Fold Aminotransferase class I/classII large domain-containing protein.
Amino acid sequence: MSSSSSSSSSSTNDLSQLSKPTVWHEFTPLANEHNAVNLGQGFPNWDPPAFVVKSMEETVNVKGTSTNQYCRPQCHLPLAQALADDYNSRPSWASAGVRVDPATNVVSSLGVTQIMYIAFRSLIKKDDEVVLLEPAFDIYAPQVLLTGGTPRFVSMKTDTEAGDTANEVFQVDWDALEATVNSKTRVLVLNSPHNPTGKIFSRTELDRLAGIVSKYPNLIVFSDEVYERIVFDPEGSPHISFATIPGMWERTLTMSSAGKTFSATGWKCGWCVGPEKIIKLMADLQQWVNFSTPTVTQDAVARSLVKARSPYEGHPNFYSWLAADYLKRRDFLMKGLEEAGLPAIVPAGGFFICAETGGLKIPDEVYMEDSISAPDPMPRDYAVARYMTHTDPKVAVIPPSPFYSKENKGEAEGYVRFCFCKTDDLLEEGVERLKGMGAKK
Ligand code: PMP
């Protein structure tokens, strides 16, 4: 994440690179081995809310019409109905004139991870290209390769002079994007709120993107919205679904899941909402992949979506409480990072913070050995993240370079990613350790 930006394509269709362990295989075990406070991998370390757990209990215990048996392959109908009600009740969807039909516009699967794979598999043909805006969540590029497409990377510009928020610092390089999208581009993946930066794309940015999409009739946008409910300033920096931009419903697959919203990442219940023609392709494919995905999980999520609309802990609904709870955690960790002398970029959504580590002096020692997932040579952000986890201050973080293609990994070298989806005790202990960190200049 330097001040530069660039675009590049991957060395195409070389699947051997997919057999390596990933950053996720490395850092949580490393944290456990060295007794580090884990502010690395982004999973909440608390239980789902009681109403969500209760939903699962209820569904498993339904007698007769059994939720314990196979369901409709496309999507368990109660989930499709709950999702349609949810999207149709959003003012921005209604005012865009978009109406989700539970029978034809919704398909579900095992998290966004699998629904995205099914979407790529349904659309990508040999020689098709997929544009990824970097940093990009690390499943996208391998999925493109697995489905026979060619990833094309456009790195966002990083301008720390522009302000201290992710929305200001991380900017789309429109020239590079325009130069990369072409008639072979079948898919562009958008992620907002964004992992790892916390950027939320503005209406102006989405309109400009829609302008590019309009020029290429074959191009479909995959909009990964898994952090849609964790938004810190809904007035100033609202989450806007790309599907609601004029003319974009027919061109967008909106993907989300229950993992982050209901603190239930292990349930792996995700969905895709979009135009009937593409949803049908995906549903047809799904029946040969899983036949159907777990009915109980879908049923429990359907119940939870209905209950989440009710007042919750003094808030008008669960989502408002969730965003307020995460805002407290974000502010606590931001303050801790500031006190520890690590300049951090304020996220507008999601549960990650990117912090600058340029000022850290990291000795060249054993912590660099035995990495199972680092590229060779080890990028600086990897070395810093390993040092922080392994030696000082024993706080696990994630290096952002896995979110970049080989050519653009240098963009990440001055940063590490912290998460704040952790309980108060863990965040407090992490901040305490960071204050005592010895590697500062
Ligand atoms: N997209 C992004 C941007 C993510 O951060 C994650 C999980 N970390 C996923 C997708 C995966 O979502 P799921 O668990 O629903 O497969």
